[in-house]
Amino acid sequence: xxxxxxxxxxxxxxxxxxxxxxxxxxxxxxxxxxxxxxxxxxxxxxxxxxxxxxxxxxxxxxxx
Length: 64
Description:
The chain is built from two helices and no strands. It is an all-alpha fold. Residues 1-21 are annotated as: Disordered.
């Protein structure tokens, strides 16, 4: 048998390969950044809505 056939090839990946730790870390960081961005946007929108609250006192209708 040839010596090259006895060693597994390094460039072949298993079908169930879940990627590297770096790939998982990148995915986690991007997910966290997306969630933080959404929370910051919600808080900014609430501040904007509160700053533009022109309802009269005693008006029970919600601002639109």
